[in-house]
Amino acid sequence: MGGKITAVSSNGTYSFTKPNRESITLLAGFGVEGDVHGGATVKHRFRMKKDPSQPNLRQVHLMHEELFDEVRRAGFEVAAGELGENVTTRGIDLLALPRGTRLRLGETAVVEVTGLRNPCAQIDRFQKGLMKQVVGRSEDGRALFKSGIMAVVLAGGVVRAGDAVAVELPEGPHLALEIV
């Protein structure tokens, strides 16, 4: 089971979008080299206000490119990096992965999935009405968050568009992703 990376993005300053790069370097225990959200402790501004010492479970943001196809059918144009993700993929149902899944990105990098990205109000500021597209409802009324997943870096390496993504599911019972 696997897919491919279609874009990589990073930004050294707090901004909703992240410019696409030729490559990014993942650093074990840190995240994306030079990215504002990298670090062993939380770097998301809202979370830092609550407790800046909590571990950073959001070192790398991954987004499935198929979401862009979905929102395009609803009249929105979104490109890689514009929703703040670091790694854009195609061919993997990221949202269906269980917590603890390991993703091998390129030749050496390995990230471990920690949970879902929580969509924030900045999505509607980026394009009015887009939030409704990235938060759906299941048949039983539960919220479905489609704005990507978060991960921590276990093994570093350079990652580029075109690199393969290999999926390694965890052993034991699979735990559904929750917002981190």
Topology (SSEs and partners):
Elements: E1 2-9, E2 20-21, E3 23-27, E4 31-32, H1 45-50, E5 60-64, H2 66-73, E6 87-90, E7 102-105, E8 109-116, H3 122-126, H4 130-134, E9 135-137, E10 143-145, E11 149-155, E12 157-160, E13 164-168
Characteristic key phrases:
molybdenum ion binding; 13 strands; three-stranded antiparallel β-sheet; 180 residues; 13% helix; MOSC_domain; MOSC domain-containing protein; catalytic activity; M1 Pyruvate Kinase, Domain 3; seven-stranded mixed beta barrel; globular; 33% strand; alpha+beta
Task: Explain what this protein looks like in three dimensions.
This is MOSC domain-containing protein. It comes from Streptomyces sviceus (strain ATCC 29083 / DSM 924 / JCM 4929 / NBRC 13980 / NCIMB 11184 / NRRL 5439 / UC 5370). It holds the Pfam family MOSC. InterPro entries: MoCF_Sase_C, MOSC_domain, Pyrv_Knase-like_insert_dom_sf. The protein has one domain: PK beta-barrel domain-like (M1 Pyruvate Kinase, Domain 3, Beta Barrel). The longest helix has 8 residues. The strands form three sheets. A seven-stranded mixed barrel has the order 1-6-5-11-8-7-13. It has a three-stranded antiparallel β-sheet with strand order 4-3-12, with no helix packed on it. A two-stranded antiparallel sheet has the order 9-10. Strand 7 and strand 8 form a beta hairpin. By secondary structure, it is an alpha+beta fold. The protein is globular, with a radius of gyration of 15 Å.
Spatial order of the strands in the main sheet? 1-6-5-11-8-7-13
Number of strands: 13
CATH topology (level 3) name = M1 Pyruvate Kinase, Domain 3
How much of the residues is beta strand, in percent?
25-35%
Tally the structural domains. Answer: 1
Structural class: alpha+beta
Per DSSP, the total helix count is 4
N- to C-terminal distance:
25 Å
The CATH architecture would be Beta Barrel
Let me know the average pLDDT: 95
Low-confidence stretches: none
Q: Summarize the helix and strand pattern as letters.
A: EEEEHEHEEEHHEEEEE
Oligomer: single chain
